[in-house]
C-alpha cells in the first residue's frame, strides 16, 4: 500500500506546479485548496498528485513568510538577489552601504565601552569627528576612498562622499532590522531600476495590430525585414483610422520600427524567431549547445575528420604536360592560365585528446581516394614531410584510430571509406547534417587555419560571397598547389601545435605539451598491423607471380623467399593480389588465392627505395621525356641504319648464290594444293579367311570361326587362293617377284601375280594341301 504524505502548508504559501504559480488557501480531506496567482481560479490538488508534481522539474515551494523570507524579493521587484540587477552602480552602492553600516557598528561598539546605553541617532552621527571616523572605516571595508566633503573647485573625482547623519541613520536602521538569513546588500541596495514610468504607452488595439503584422509578414521563411513589417502595419493602422474617423475617434499614430522590433521581442524569443524564419535545422545548428565533457584521454582514442572548401584561388596550370605541347598550344595555355583558376578543398584529421593534427590533404574534389590518403597519412610517420618542406619541429607520429567522427561529406561517407574503416577495426561515427553542436571541436579546428593562415595568402576570396569587394582574388591567385601544401604543412607542424588552446579539456595548454604528456602518462592507441593497413588503405593491383616476383605499375618489382616457397608448395597458377602503400614502396603485401596468411614482399629495385609511388612515376616520366625534334631525328637515323642492315643481308645472299631458307606466299599455296589434292581415308577390312585379333580365341560359330586349327598342325591356314582377274592390271605385284614363291618345294610357283591375292569369296578347302605364309613382302608405294 502506497502512503501519500500530507504536508502542513500554511495559508499563503506559494507553490509553482507545471509552471503555474498558486497560493495555498487551506487543506481539506481530498487535498490542498489552491488559487492561481495569475488567473485566480480555485482548484484542489490531491495529495498523491502533489507528490507526483513535486518530482517534475520546475516545481517550487516558498514557505517563508512575507515578514522575513520574501519581503526583500518583493522589495527588489521579483529579483531573488541584488546581484541579478543589471545596473552595476546599484551593486556597487549596495556594497558601499553595507560597509558604511558595519563602520557604524564599530563606532557604536567603541562608544558603548564608555556609555553602555549609547544608540546611534541622526544627531550623534552627524558630528564631524564621527563622520570622519565612519569614512575611514568605510574606506577600509569597501576598498574605495570615502570623503566627508567634496573636492574644492568642483573637480571631478571617483571618490564617494559620506552621507549626512540622517541618511546614515536611515541605512543603519534598515541594516539593524534584518532577520536571520537575510542579505544586507539586498536590503540596502537603492531601487534605481524601479524609477520611471512603467505604464504601457501604447493602447491595446495598436499592440493587437502590431501582433497581426508580425504574424502575417514578419514570421516567415523568406526572412522579411522590420521595414517590410512596418509597411504592412501602416496599412492596418490606415484601415483602423478610417473606422475611427467614422465614429469620431482620434486617429492612431504608427509606431516606429524600433517600437515594432521591441514588440516582437515581447512576443517571441530569439530562438523562436530563428525557428520561424530559418527553420528548425538552422536554429539547431546556430543555437544548439554542444557537450562540454572531456571525450578522450588518449591519442587516437577519438579523432575528428572534416572537409572544407578553401576560400582561396590557386593556379590551374598542370606540371608535367608542358613538354608534350606544341608552340601554339603553349601560347594558348599561357594566355588561358592568366584567368583560369581553381578552388581546392582541404581535408584534415586531428586528435581530440591533444588537439594535434594527424593528417592533412589538399584535393580538387573531396572523394574516397583523398580520404584514404588522409587515413594513410594519419597512421604513418611524417618525417618525409618534415624534411621535404623544411619543418623545424616534429609532427605527430602515426597511430591507430579507435573512434573516428565525421559528417555526411561526400568524400567522408562512402562505401570505400566505410569498408576500409571496418577492416581496420575503427568505429565510424556519423553525425547529423548541419549540426555542428555534435562535433563542435571539429568545426573549430578548421576555423583556426581559415582565420590565421588562408586569410593572409594571396588569392583569398573570403568566407562568403562578396566579403572582399575591392580585392581581385583571380588576379592574385598565383600560388600553385605544391607551394600551398608546403606552407600548410609548416603551419600545422611548426605553428599550430605551439599556440595556446582554450578548448574543453585543454585549459590554455599547448597541443604539443598535451601530446607529450599523454605519451608519458597514458600512451597512444595501438599501431595498425602493416599488412592490414596496406590491405585496407593501400592500392590493389592484380599480377602474375614468376621467378622474378610480382611486377606492379609496369616496372616496379617485388619478391621474397616466402612468395616463392608459397608459389611452389601451392602449385599456384594464375594472378595474385598485390597491395602497395603509395607512400612507402619498400614492402608490399601479397594475397595468394588458397593461401591463408598474407605474404610480405620486398622492393627489388634499390633505386626506388624510400620513394613514394608518385615520385617513382615522375622519375620514370623524366627519364622518358625528350625533345620532340630530337625524337624525330633519332627515329630517322634509326630507320636509316636498319634499312642499311637489311640491304647488306640481301646483297650477301645474291653474291654467294645462297639457297633460301624461307618460302614465299605463292610457293606455300601451291605446295598446299599438291599435298591435299585427291587425299581420302580408306577404312580397313578383315581379309576373307582370317579373323580379327580380338576374336582369335572365339570358339563360337561365325564367319571367322575355325579359321585356325586348334591343336598341332603344319600350316596356319587351310585352303587355296584363286586369282582375281580384276587385279591383274593393278601393277601391285610382279609375277617374277620371289616373294610370291611358296616355301613348299613340292608346289609350283604361281603363273601370274594375280594368283598371289586371295579372292573375296573363299572356296572349299582341299584336303591334304596347305598354303604357307609368303615371305619378303614389300610395302606398297
From TrEMBL:
<feature type="compositionally biased region" description="Basic residues">
    <location>
        <begin position="759"/>
        <end position="775"/>
    </location>
</feature>
<feature type="region of interest" description="Disordered">
    <location>
        <begin position="718"/>
        <end position="781"/>
    </location>
</feature>
<dbReference type="InterPro" id="IPR012337">
    <property type="entry name" value="RNaseH-like_sf"/>
</dbReference>
<protein>
    <recommendedName>
        <fullName>Integrase catalytic domain-containing protein</fullName>
    </recommendedName>
</protein>
<dbReference type="InterPro" id="IPR001584">
    <property type="entry name" value="Integrase_cat-core"/>
</dbReference>
<feature type="domain" description="Integrase catalytic">
    <location>
        <begin position="314"/>
        <end position="519"/>
    </location>
</feature>
<dbReference type="InterPro" id="IPR036397">
    <property type="entry name" value="RNaseH_sf"/>
</dbReference>
